Amino acid sequence: MARKCDSPRIGLSPWTWLSGILLICGCSTLAKTQQTANIPVGNHLPGSRVPEVAIGEPQEQQKIPGNISGTVVGPDGVALAGVSVKLAIEGQSARQEVFTSEDGKFALTHIAPGSFQLTITSEGFSTQTSTGVLHSGENLVVPPISLVLATTITKVRVELSPIEIAQEQMNDEMKQRVLGAIPNFYVTYVPNAAPLTSKQKYQMAWKLGIDPAFIVGAAGVAGVQQARNEFSGYGQGAQGYAKRFGATFADFTMSNLLGNAVFPALFKQDPRYFYNGMGTTKSRALYALANAVICKSDKGHWQANYSHIIGSLTAGGISNLYYPASDRGAALTFENTAIGIGGTAILNLLKEFVLTKITTNVPGRSNSTTPSHP
């Protein structure tokens, strides 16, 4: 029978064997852990540096589009429809445009977060802007936007018609008075004065005919005639003076009406004296004397003064109806006409050299004593 060989006995306790087993398992686990730590991360090759990630820092939040809405009203607070609202976002070239609804509201959707500007325009209103910042995912309601009426400067050129210009000039002329009392209506200080219409010629003649100075002038002439016993057929005393005053006033009225209105309207001539005020004294004197028999037509041409000459003859013929029988006849008519032309020449000299200096309300004059030469 074969002999059995026994293994040598080692003097280790069971606790020692258990500790050894745990130590072996622990080393095995540590080896696996070290092996895992050496595995490359991502696409990094073994031996390269792996990016370090800070532990505990929050990751960047994702930007979420938001919405912008609001209301547009007018100066009175009433909602405005159809108003353009344009959106501009900082850093972006693209713009979005919407229009307000009937209740004045607008809404801009899917807007990237960030600074923005709204431009609000509507015809008849001044352009308004509104700025702000839209946060991620925010539904922003901007305060009500109030538009104000646009202030535009419009240049309007108002051109008067020739009739309106003539009316204004005539109104100025009818304010002209020698020494502030005696009418000096029939002198124009505007070289290119607008022609008077027939109606305006009658208006000016009527204005002169009812002027107190006109009546006082007739009374003065009648007094001189009374003192010199002219037209002796009228006699003396109050009755004689009344007849002379009536005849003189009739002469004045007929000469004024026929010479300044009826015939100027018929022949289309201007009854006014056009003040010269320029040149030598001789040239101005000749101009004044010539204007006793010539005048301007309504078209601005110089021509014979038919209106004044025929008006004087007509007035003289009518005067035969009320002058004494001993003083009537063609001779009186032509005599009065000649006297009228001579008187007009003398009056024109006074208008050119004297009366203008003492006439008030002359257009363009800085004061009442210094004439303005056109």
Q: How does this model look, in words?
A:
The chain starts with 13 loop residues before the first helix and ends in a 14-residue tail after the last strand. It is of the alpha+beta class and 374 residues long. It is rod-shaped and about 125 Å long. It has eight helices and 15 strands. Strands 1, 4, 7 and 8 form a four-stranded mixed beta sheet that branches. A four-stranded antiparallel beta sheet has the order 3-2-5-6, with no helix packed on it. Mean pLDDT is 82; it is low at 1-60 and 367-374. Helices cover 39% and strands 17% of the residues. The protein folds into two domains: 66-146, Carboxypeptidase-like, regulatory domain (Immunoglobulin-like); 162-360, no CATH class. The protein has helices at 14-37, 162-173, 198-209, 212-228, 237-267, 281-290, 306-319, 330-353, and strands spanning 66-73, 84-89, 95-99, 105-111, 114-121, 128-134, 139-141, 145-146, 177-178, 182-183, 187-188, 273-274, 294-296, 302-304, 359-360.
